[in-house]
Amino acid sequence: MKSWISLLIVLLLWRQTFTKNIKNNLNNDEKILYSSSNAGLLKLLEMEESFMENIKLYTNKLAEKVQNLKAYLFSVDYKKNRSPEEGLEYVSNPLTAFSLVRRTHEDLPKWHQWFQEEMKTSESDTRIDELVANVPDSQDFLEAALGIQRIERIYDLRIDDLAEGRLQDKQYNIRFTFRDRLAMGNLMFKQRDFLAAAKWYRMATKIESEENNDILNKILGDPMPHLKRQYIKAVFVYASVLSGDSQSNEEAFNEVEKKIADIDEQVIDELLTKFKKPESDIELEKQLYQTQRSYTDFEKGCRGQFRQKTRLTCSYNFTTTPFLQLAPLKMEEINRNPYIVMYHDVLYDSEIKALKGQSHGLRNGFADAKNGTMIRDIVARHGWWSEKSPIRKRINQRIIDMTGLNISLTENIQIANYGLGTYFKPHFDYTSDGYVTADTDILGDRLVTVLFYASDVPQGGATVFPEVKASIFPRKGSAIWWFNLYRNGTDDTRSKHSVCPVIKGDRWTLTMWINLFPQMFIAPCLI
Ligand SMILES: *[C@@H]1O[C@H](CO)[C@@H](O)[C@H](O)[C@H]1NC(C)=O
Ligand SMILES: *[C@@H]1O[C@H](CO)[C@@H](O)[C@H](O)[C@H]1NC(C)=O
Ligand SMILES: *[C@@H]1O[C@H](CO)[C@@H](O)[C@H](O)[C@H]1NC(C)=O
Ligand SMILES: *[C@@H]1O[C@H](CO)[C@@H](O)[C@H](O)[C@H]1NC(C)=O
Which residues line ligand 2 (CB under 6 A)? Predict the structure, then answer.
C-alpha cells in the first residue's frame, strides 16, 4: 500500500518534470523548426507580435506617465534656469505668489505620491522626500490666502478683477488659475466669509477646464462636484442673511448645509446651469457686489486718497551738521505738526546690497508679538543688524545729519522684508504700546523713528499716518523720520503709523529708533 502511494507521488512528480521538459524540448525543437516551414515562421511572427504587443502596452503606460509628468511641468509653469530677477518678479506678484504657495501645499504632495507609486525609482528619492516634507503647511497656506484677502480689502479691489490679474489700474498678463480660485473660495468659506467665497467660486466656474484637465483631475482629484455644492451653499447663505431670512451667518449656514446635503447631483447641476446663464450671472454679480462698507483712514491712506497738504516745502538742508554745508541733503516736509520729514538719496545702492547680504536669518515678525500667543497678523520677516561696519558708521552719520540727534547709543537696526499681503497694523513705536526691550530700559523711550526705504515698491506698501492723514510711498534710497513723543517726553498719539500691504513688489526697509536719554545734552528741554 505504502509503496503504491509513493509510486503515485513519484509518477506525478515525474510527469510534471516530463511535461516541462517536453515544453522545453518543444521550444528547442521549434527553434529549429521555425525557418523550416511557413507554419513555423508564422509561429515566430506570432511570438514577435505578442512581444511587441507587450512592449506597446508598456510604451503606452510610459507615454501616459510622460504625459502626466509633462502636464505637471506645464501646470506649475516650470521654467528652467529662472534668473534671480525672474524669480523675484515671480514672487513679487500676488497672483503667482499665491499660486506657488497653493501648488506646493496642495498639489506637490499628491504628485509626489503618484510619482512614488508609478515610478518606483530608488535614487534621489530621499532628496524628494525631504523636499516634500518641507512644503508649506496649512497655516502658511491660510496666511497666503489672508494676504490676498488683505490686498483685496484694503485696496478695495473686486475679486473679479483680482482673479483676472487686474490690480488697481494695472492689468497683468497673469490670472488666478482654476484651482487657485477654488482654493481662495474654500479658504474664505472656512473663514465663514461666505460672500467672498461666493465671489471666488463664481470666478472658478468661469474657467470651464484647464489644459490637461483630465490628467490633473486623475492625480489631484476632480474638484468640480465639490465646487458646485460649495458655490451654491455660499450664495444661499449670503442671500439668506441679506434677505433677513436668517439672523446670522451661522444660522443660515446650518440651514443651508442641511438642505444641500439632501439634494442630489443632478439638481445641483441644474441649479448651477441656471446660475451660469448670462442674464442670471449678471444679476448675481450685481447682488454680490452691492454692499458698500465705509473705509478706515488707514485704508484711505494706503490707496493714496488723503488730500495733498499745502504749504509744505521741499528744500536742501544745510544746517543740521557742518558737513551739510558741503553736501546738503534734499529734504521734503511731510507734515508740520507733528513733524514728519522725508530725505532723498540718503541710502546708496552699495549699502542696500550689503544690508540684504546680512538678511539671511530673517524671522517672522508679529504685529502684536507683545501679547501672548493668539493668532496674530504676521507682518514682515525681519532681522536685526548689529554689525559695527564702516557702512553702519556711514548710515549713522547720515542719521545724525538728518536729525541732529545723538545716536551714539541706540538699539540695533531692524531690517524688514514684506511678503504676500503682509502688513503692519496701525501702532505706536513708544514703549507704552508694549514694545519694552532691554534697550529701552537703559536708553529711554523711542523718541524718534528713522525709516529708510531700501527698495521701490511699484504698487502698495505705503507708510501711513492715519491720525495726521499722511501717506508716504517708498522710494529707494529715501528715508523718513518722525517724533513719537512730545517735547516733554510724553506719548504723542498722533505718531500712530502702519505699513500697507504690498500689492506688487518687494519692500525692504531699515528702521532705527533714537532713544530719549542720550539726547539730554543736545536738547535738554526734552527731559
Ligand atoms: C493682551 O492680553 C491680555 C490677556 O492676556 C488682554 O487682557 C489684553 O487686552 C491684551 N491686550 C491687547 C492690546 O490685545
Ligand atoms: C534741517 O534739519 C534740522 C533737523 O531736523 C532742522 O532743525 C532744521 O530746521 C532743518 N533746516 C532747514 C533749513 O530746514
Ligand atoms: C506734554 O505736552 C503735551 C503737548 O504739548 C501736552 O498735551 C501734555 O499734557 C504734556 N504732558 C505733561 C505730562 O506735561
Ligand atoms: C551722546 O550721548 C552719549 C551718551 O549719553 C554721550 O557720552 C556723548 O557725549 C553724546 N554726544 C554728543 C555729541 O552730545
Answer: 317, 319-320, 403-404
